Records
---
Amino acid sequence: MEAAPGPEAPVTNPYAAAQRQFDRAADHLGLERGLRDILRAPQREVSVRFPVRLDDGSTRVFEGYRVQHNMSRGPAKGGVRFHPATDLDEVRALAMWMTWKCALVGVPFGGAKGGVACDPGSLSRGELEALTRRFTTELQGVIGPDVDIPAPDVGTNAQVMAWMMDTLSMHRGMLLPAVVTGKPLAVGGSEGRSDATGQGILDTVEFAAARIGMRLEGARVAVQGFGNVGEAAARLLDARGARIIAVTDVRGGARNADGMDPVLLREHLLATGSVAGAAGTAPISNEELLALDCDILVLAALEGQVTSRNAGRVRARIMAEGANGPTTPDADPILREHGVVVIPDILCNAGGVAVSYFEWVQNREAFPWSAEEVNARLGRMMTTAATEVWDRAERDGIDMRLAAHAIAVERVARATLVRGLYP
Ligand code: NAD
């Protein structure tokens, strides 16, 4: 007798995953062949190899990338990642997701991403600054306020953005604050930017919870990843009355069914380098966290965490994709079958690029907005996008990921068509 077909093998390459998601949307929309070919792969890819002098006097060569997936709707926009596993395919996928994300929330940008294969934790501050400045110099021909605007991502932060801005400004002989977003407030950063991705996660989780009749007060939350995104999401969900019952990072995890204070977790992380071992908590592994009995699972680490191998064990009712590409395409049908409401990445974590856009506008106008104004505009943008995705999913009888991609691909396709081909 033939064995029953098991779950599909995980799609471990993020670019293959991003293209698979695009294909689903293109099929759903009945997109014609020429448009598919334009949108299915990046418009421009830059690879650089550059030397950096280390503190011990030696020289090390690093590899870096900037990929601009699509610029039909505006200048390219996307983060810069410093991580040992960063490679061209990862950056391609992340650039493609940025295109869809901007289109979905109505930000007039295209999609890009950049990265350097390095371990920022093993570099001194001086080495990190030298690496950042040299990488920026290598990219000076392809980034700029009207062309491509980088932002922080995994392994980078506001300080790295300040160095990027300063480097490009020195080269051009004028201050160019709008060349990067996610800068420190002292050099043109926006109120609300550092919490923006977490705030957008909260907004979309609130939206989904309301639609399925779940109360956030007392809801049990597990968070994978406790960096820029995971820490803010945990703190804001906790402030909204939810209970943070488990958190993991790359080194380990902490759990307490009664709830943990994210502020204390962060203090422990700053003192020790991990949330693991925080006072009053028990250890938990990543695999255990993904399978934990909870109401809301926030993914805020890296790609490819929920796959066909572990998707069947997810017990959360809402899975919020704070990270980009945390779920492989083969896991989606399993999650659907189990009734997990997945808030897809291009919607869930779009708060970051939304406030990046606000920062760029403030820089261009040389007129800063108040925190209240930033958050009010962000809330409206996230709620509008979430409503559109939810309604499209219901109307077409599809899941939220396909609905989000369909809306976004449709918008980019329309812009491409209306602009026409040159020459
Ligand atoms: P970060 O470097 O600040 O934090 C990443 C966190 O994930 C750290 O706590 C790290 O320890 C943890 N981590 C790494 N590998 C892990 C693993 N295997 N298991 C468990 N934890 C692991 O990065 P970030 O800026 O918070 O980005 C996280 C995710 O969110 C990425 O997918 C990124 O692309 C996405 N994102 C970031 C922003 C932003 O504004 N920074 C915006 C949108 C999306």
---
Amino acid sequence: MKETVVSGIRSTGKLHLGNYYGAVKNFVQMQNDYNCYFFIADLHSLTTHPTPADLHGNIRHVLVEYLASGIDPENSTIYIQSDVPEIAELYLYLNMNAYMGELERSTSFKDKVRANPDNVNAGLLTYPVLMAADILIHKATKVPVGKDQEQHLEMARTFGNRFNRLYNSEYFPEPYAFSYSDKLVKVPGLDGKGKMGKSEGEANAVYLSDDPETIRKKVMKAVSDGGPTEENQPKPEPIQNLFDLMKVVSSADTLAHFEELYNKMQIRYGDFKKQLAEDMIITTAPMRERILEIAKDDAYLRQVAKHGALKARESAQKTIKEVRSLIGFKSF
Ligand code: TYM
């Protein structure tokens, strides 16, 4: 039997190149190799209190962009998390077994607390528990994610194993972060520090739906510096980030060419950024075309969401029934 894959994307905005290289790029191959569940994590997005209109608009963006990546709704299961209430039920059970100390130690929780000290809600604290429920509900073993989600996968294994021990079973298999390459990906942003992300401001991320002119403008404005002052000088973070971006979007030859110019102190950042922008445009263009096409088709989106919810619930209901029985809920 094929192994099960679960992939989730938070519905907090349009997809960027980080999401693409971290998770989305290999969806077509994945759906042939594995039994795949692709879902839109809209419950997770509630931690930031979106308005009803924003919530719906963002779910729609991610649905369209999932489909534009080549997912076939017949071959795999594509659904919206809030359409599958069994996930929220499993989240409740797993919460009984998730401890304050370990949740507070999670790196992403600490980052969120630092970024938004006025909104430290319980949903944020138990975010990794909901994520574990997303994965365990289909008993998945493989989870395509970027490097930033590695710790969440470790927590999902902890919660699944703890449930197994408590109920003396081997019910949940262990899920692992998965990528077709040997390493998990971390795509940097354009602002000179850290990863590309939706919450880091518009200028930091290149979206799959950005038009070529927008991409050129963003890349030309990316943080750089006055250039190397010595041959073979180590690169400061903003420059290393741009090279890392080139590594994901450009050919090996192009990268080697600019590495050599940098090392010889002959690099001109204007030319370098121009090339980077053009290669980003080449990467995103086919996705963008499909996004524009699919976004027009409300009837298709409605049908995909409905069909996906049915398929996902079938698998989720089976798990919940077995979990309830293991916990000891019995009908009178
Ligand atoms: P989210 O929505 O932040 O990101 C979706 C996917 O994109 C990857 N990603 C990146 N990869 C490399 N470089 C980057 N700069 C970058 N930015 C984002 C993420 O690693 C992720 O794979 N908690 C998840 C959503 C989620 C989930 C799940 C994922 C909820 N439940 C169950 C898998 C399984 C998140 O916030 O991803």
---
Amino acid sequence: MTTMTASDWRARADSQELVSQAFIDGSYTPARSGETFDDYSPVDGRLLARVASCDVEDADLAVAAARRTFAEGCWSRQAPSARQAVLLRLAALIEANSEELAMLETLDMGKPIGDALSVDLPAAARAIRWSAEAIDKIYDEVAPTPEDQLGLVTREPVGVVAAIVPWNFPLMMACWKLGPALATGNSVVLKPSEKSPLSALRLAALAVEAGLPAGVLNVLPGFGHKVGQGLSRHDDVDTLVFTGSTRVGRRLMVDAGETNMKRVWLEAGGKSPNIVFADAPDLEEAAEAAAAAIAFNQGEVCTAGTRLLVENSIREEFVSRVVAALEHHWVPGDPLDPTTRVGALVDGTQMETVLGFIESGKAEGASLRLGGAPLSGSLCGLLVPPTVFDDVTPKMRIAQEEIFGPVLSVIGFDEFDEAMTIANDTIYGLAAAVWTRDLSKAHRAARALRAGSVWVNQYDGGDMTAPFGGFKQSGNGRDKSLHAFDKYTELKATWIKI
Ligand code: NAD
């Protein structure tokens, strides 16, 4: 763990050279149009870089490079063990450069530097390493055919993958895609969010240093309606993988349908219920977890525990504990200070969205128990303290819509079935948690909850070994685990007459 202080990080930020050009076919290059966009830091408002603003033309060039390398086979037809060696070097390089990459994350999107170092960077490296380690241990199948036939069931890379990712965990989300996409032999065009392009651009150089052939990984910074559309509507992209909002995900499915029917895999929004029964094993532990579930990463987490469903018999006591935990442990501060646990919201637009939801909670009659206004006089003006609303009813906007900020909606319940009905009363189905010491009740809840991940007596467990993704409008397909490989491969049946 680093011993650097906030002023050390600030000095490092001042002297850090930032990569701001697109990365196409092995070289950094300006956008064809010559256009740039200004990338400001939510930490202190500084202009970080004028970043290449890519468009359809750049998408064409990057997809062409990806297609050429895929067809040539310099990566796609390498032995799995050879791809593995390159990706293991990439994982090691991510680790070796983790301080720089963590700082880029914090500068770009405002998360606490301590989290960037201890959560984002290890997870990014792990995603690459885990996928690399797996790739030479997966076997194909021989079908149970009659004796005069040999039926081979094999997996092949899909070809050109476009990966469009969000800003809340920029590098980690990118690596959840890149690990399995590259391990299975595809060529990739990665589009980071316009709000957080820097770490992905730096990663491109590390990939080359690791030995990835030019053109196999291309990185295009820019806006969704420009280069994003250039990729989602491209006729030579075979598969589009996406993490982001449900609104944009829906649009991408239309784009694919109107063009070449590229496969579309979506990891989208959430409104996850965290359900606390009166027989939770340890109310203090549950309260601390409920606080972390809404405050970690400023609440800018797809799986944030935004709906706290509490059995009415313990509600008052439990909400008081959650409020106390938030007040004591989750105070917003300077994102570059290693002791800070809640950083800055990503930008003014996100701030307005979050404040708008807070106003709507007040207007709809929920009881404000904590927070409710931004911290004044802060370094960056984008610090919003954890905010808790009690007496929320399931149809209120703050109980239905994804806020993507540190705003918690507490809803009371009396009966098990009532809790399950409220929990499932959402268009989303990403995650859910349940706290009880009754094993049967926990299993019944886990079965009843329509969500891709269910946690029992914890919030946000998981690692690379288990699939991650959503039911309903939280998406389709899964990141992480061997199941993620399904998105990046086509199944082929080969019949040989003997
Ligand atoms: P967003 O949907 O606004 O943007 C995501 C990406 O899509 C960005 O790179 C953006 O530039 C691009 N994009 C936007 N419009 C586009 C278009 N028309 N065509 C092509 N690309 C376009 O999401 P965001 O604000 O960056 O991220 C927050 C969202 O991400 C939240 O909804 C959150 O729940 C979700 N998220 C989901 C997961 C998950 O695993 N399910 C993980 C993290 C974040």
